Each structure stands twice: as structure tokens, then as C-alpha cells.
Amino acid sequence: MCSSDLYKLAFDTLRDFAPVSQVTVSAYILVINNAVPAKSVKELVTLAKAQPGGLTFASAGSGSAPHMVAELFKSAADLDIRHIPYKGVAPAIPDLLGGRVAMMFSPLQPALPLTREGKLRAIAVTSSRRSAALPELPTIAESGYPGYEVTGWIGL
Questions:
Q1: d(Cα 15, Cα 32) in Å, to the nearest integer?
Q2: Predicted confidence (pLDDT) per residue in 28-39, tens digit
């Protein structure tokens, strides 16, 4: 049996499926370790530019949504920060809390309790509008990068 035979399906995903509804849309949140002296996106960018390659960012793995969100930010801000991939968001959080990585673009749900407890510092959200969960937190676009918007979504 050829390996390509394993992937022959009895249906065409583009022809035979139709979207029913979008279930949810969620922003990512830029969180940093409390030891990082930045209090805003502007301060974080200034810090990163002062030490090219010196700051690190965690992701849920190479090619994951949080990785792509960070790469878009790197490009928009013209930053040289180092990617540290993990096998998911959950394994990255302890290293972010412990200061082994400086920052991460996290889905809102795992980062929100840690920011509310003061264990991580949230500095921006990636949506076009502020989050209802953290209305005091500016968007990346408001922080000097107009047009920057990234959200995750789930549909049926």
C-alpha cells in the first residue's frame, strides 16, 4: 500500500462541506515576564532594539498561531527577537513565569488569570478593538502599529 493511499478520502473537503457558523473569535494577548522593565509596547520595542537578539519570545511551537502572531509583530516593529518554540502554550508558561523567556503572544484564556494575579504583565491585545476582559489594555494598533490585527476563531 502506497502512503498516498492512506490519505484518499471519500469526500472533497472544499466541495462537500459548508460553513454553518462562526462560534467564537478571540484575541491574543502580549504578556511579558515581570522582570522585563517595559510597561508598554513602545517601551518593549525600545528595549528590544537596544539589545538586538537579546530578548526571547515563547510560542506554542514553530508555525503555531502564537508563533505567527509574534512573527507579524516582529516584522511590523522591525525587531530582532529570538523565537523559543514549545510543544503548546501550557509548557511555555512556566518558562515565561520563571524568566527563561521574556514574552509571549498567548491566547487570552490561559494568560488572563496570570495577569490578574500579577504573575505576568499584559501590555497589549492583538484584536482591532480592546478586549472586554481587559478594557484598560491597548491594542497593538493603538500602541503605534496601525492595521495590526490578529484573532483566532472557531467555526462549525
A1: 43
A2: 999 999 999 999
